[in-house]
Amino acid sequence: MCTNKKYTLSDEIVDYINECLSKEHPESYLIAILHKVQGIYGFLSEIHLDEVAHLLQVPTANVYGVATFYHYFRLKPRGQFAISVCMGTACFVKGADSVLTSFKSELGIDMGETTSDGLFSLEGTRCIGVCALAPVVTINDRVYSNVVSQQVSQILNEIKAAERV
Amino acid sequence: MKYINAVIDGLSVSVEEGKTIMEAADSIGSHVPRLCFHPFLSTEGACRICVVDVEGYNNHLPACATKLQDGMIITTNSPSLRETRRDLVELLLDNHPKNCLTCERDGNCELQNLSYKLGVRERLFEGWRKEFKFDDSNVSVLRDAEKCILCKRCVRVCSEIQGVHNLSQMYRGVQTVVSPAFMAPMDESVCIKCGQCINVCPTAAFIERDETDKVWEAINDPNKFVVVQTAPAIRSAIGEGWDMPYSTSWTGKTVTALRRLGFDAVFDTDFTADLTIMEESHELMERLKSGENLPMITSCSPGWINFVEHFYPELLPNVSSCKSPMQMLSTLAKTYYAEKMHKDPKDIYVVAVMPCVAKKFEATRPEHFSPNGYPYTDAVLTTRELIWMIKAYGIDFVKLHEDEFDVPLGTSSGAGDIFGATGGVMEAALRTAYEKITGESIENLTFTEVRAVEGLREATIDIKGTLVNVAVANGLNNAKIILEKVKSGEKQFHLIEIMACPGGCVNGGGQPIPHVNKFIYPLDKDLVKKRQQALYTIDEAKTLRKSHENPAILELYKEFLEAPGSHIAHELLHTTYSEKSPKGIK
Asked: What is the mean pLDDT of chain B?
């Protein structure tokens, strides 16, 4: 944990926290700071959370409480390919659940986790607004429509094959 | 002062402005059932058990979190309210382990008691229940998150009273759990092991590590000579285990009970409290002479030592190097006493009965092992554990006759007894310092100005022209105030006494938890005062009230330790501290 004065957080974030400290109720900027950290690093690591706590002088337990409370904050690095399975009503009734189960078993990870090679991470998401194409899966910026669970291994294999080239 | 008039259950009430519905209802004898509420911590309003109806409001309102307003017409009891409360308790029970019969808090659990009182006699629902790993990483405080009902009392005491902020609620919804940062085991957190979370927990989500089995085993081992020592604060609270009167001390009965349990020698930690004063006052005189590392801060409270190591490592040179009285006695038992009795220290087993769970950790610190590799203290029991042992053995404590401690490690002055109350170490030190500085006999032995009943005291003691600035703090949030003053140089103190637990050792994390039906909550100032009074009464009744006049102490120096601060005294009675990780946030 962080006991020395050197921080692994970028200067930009350290400067931002220092700026917050000069304002009234600096602790109220905690969420904004965590947003910035996640924006830069993609997720909130323990070392970064601890450093935020020490810089902002907010107990580490409270910082972790906030980071775990909001679904938006990720505590583990996202994979190179972030798979989001839409769990909105339309997708769900058309079988998103079994699609998600297939992804879990194919990848050997649970929701919110990342494969050990760092290639894939899996998330469930709320309605993304293309219900006509349900069930919908997005992988990074690409949208897969009318997905059935049997397709899952093919989708993953295509991505892996493209990566190997 | 403005008064608020309202009607509760058909009775008119008039209470000071700012009081809650719960406080107003309590004043007329309407005891609204409650669970997360704790009178000495902030309002949480989490459990909703204390709901009441107020005319004009469609929903039930929590009595603990709603301020009384003029003209309110309140009902604390109706079929609907009773059903709501019962439903809430039933929901908690459905998510709670059903091993009450083997639970440490069986018979004194607020959830169990509430369930009984509200008439929950069966559970029809067997469903999913939260599952968490039992955290027994810490030698002092164990955490069973499955028994947690999320009242947040532990979170509140850890931050509001102790300023440690080790605990918080993590995640949300059904996954919500109270934990240290990063879901770390307690042992890898900033926990200072004071055990106040154990005292305020309504269930057994926090408990101490039970060492009674270890002690039974040692007692029954014919090759072991088992020595026991009891801390000053034990004698003022142990009677509570048998509902005996408060403000009374039970020294003699405790000694008898310990002998009956089979301990081979029963010693008094008060003896080494006196010894601490000898060493500490010598250390203080040296520091005053050299002007270095002032102010000196006392080192008796292991919770405080953990706190300074995690939170204020920059002040470690200011902490007295004296071991705590417990460690001094254990060390002497395996050196001085072993020599005197012609025993191999390896055959001596030292048990310490303490009002404290941090002492369990202190005993395991590598600094407190002999150069030959064995610990000086083998086991530490809390007051609660000793009460269990006495009851398990079938001893009726109430009927016991009174006995005396064994010699030589059992003779003490009144100065040693008051160590268990806030300001006690300071008062004891001042008695000795006064006579050492002036060379005259002190007339007034009590220094009530250092009894920090409200948690924090600063005073200037005039020792015949020598002005000594002292401060006394209990509860670590109070200690922080003094430590910040020391760091900023705002005030030049000479001697500071810090006790981790609010009120001092009498309110330690290992003391009896008053029975749930008494509605006396740990942290209660009145309870703390009664336990303190028991110690002051012992002191006042003794003719021997100054540590440096204790004949057993004088003999110890003559036979073994030479003089306070001597080479051998340093080797055996002093210790070192070091910065600990993770670093706490002040």
From this structure: 95
**Residue B43 neighbours by CB distance under 10 Å:** 15
Q: Does domain A81-164 have CATH number 3.10.20.740?
A: no
Q: Which long-range contacts (CB under 8 A, 24 or more apart) does B536-541 make?
A: B536/B418, B536/B421, B537/B247, B537/B248, B537/B249, B538/B235, B538/B249, B538/B251, B538/B414, B538/B417, B539/B414, B539/B415, B539/B417, B539/B418, B540/B414, B541/B414
Q: Is the CATH number of domain A11-69 3.40.50?
A: no
Neighbours of B349 (CB within 10 A): 25
pLDDT band with cut points at 50, 70 and 90 for residue A5: low
User: Pick from B172, B583, B585: which is nearest to A69 by CB?
Assistant: B172
Token digits of residue B128: 């999913």
CB atoms within 10 A of CB B236: 31
Q: Is B147 a catalytic site residue?
A: no
Rounded to the nearest 5 percent, the helix, strand and coil shares of chain B are: 40, 15, 40
As annotated, the residues of chain A forming the CATH 3.40.30.10 domain(s) are: 81-164
| β-strand partners of A143 | A138
Residue indicated by tokens 């050792």: B505
Answer with the residue of higher pLDDT: B519 or B511: B511
Residue ranges and CATH numbers for the domains of chain B are 3-89 (3.10.20.740), 141-206 (3.30.70.20), 213-573 (3.40.50.1780)
Q: Which DSSP state fits A80?
A: S
Region of B551 (left: φ > 0; alpha: ψ -120 to 50; beta: rest) is: alpha
Strand partners, B459: B470
Q: Which residue has the tokens 């920059």?
A: B314
Nearest to A46 among B167, B182, B581 (CB): B182
Give yes or no for residue B507 having a pLDDT over 70. Answer: yes
Which of A71, A4, A72, A66 is closest to A29 using CA atoms? A66
Which residue in this structure is represented by tokens 């398990």?
A: B392
B320 is catalytic: yes
Residue B276 has a pLDDT of 96
A111 contacts: CB under 8 Å, gap ≥ 6? A100, A104, A122, A123, A124
Which residues of chain A lie closer than 8 angstroms to B182, CB-CB? 46, 49, 60, 64
In total, the C-beta contacts within 8 angstroms joining chain A to chain B are 57
Helix (H) or strand (E) holding B358: helix B358-364
DSSP H stretches of helix in B140-195: 153-156
CA distance B274 to B297: 17
State the pLDDT at residue A88. Answer: 93
Contact A147, A99 (CB under 8 A): yes
Instruction: Kindly report the nearest CA distance between residue A55 and chain B, in angstroms.
Output: 10
Q: Residues of A with CB below 8 A from B183's CB?
A: 64
Q: How large is the average pLDDT for residues B535-551? A: 94
Q: Which residues of B touch A57 (CB under 8 A)?
A: 585-586
**Residue A2 above 80 pLDDT?**
no
Nearest chain B Cα distance for residue A35, angstroms: 17
**Is B566 considered catalytic here?**
no
- DSSP β-bridge partners for residue B73: B7
DSSP B194: -
Phi, psi for B366 (deg, rounded to 5)? -60, -25
Provide the CB-side half-sphere exposure for B253 (13 A, CA). 22
Q: Is the pLDDT of residue B567 over 90?
A: yes
Structure tokens given for B321: 């190097």
| ipTM of the prediction | 0.92
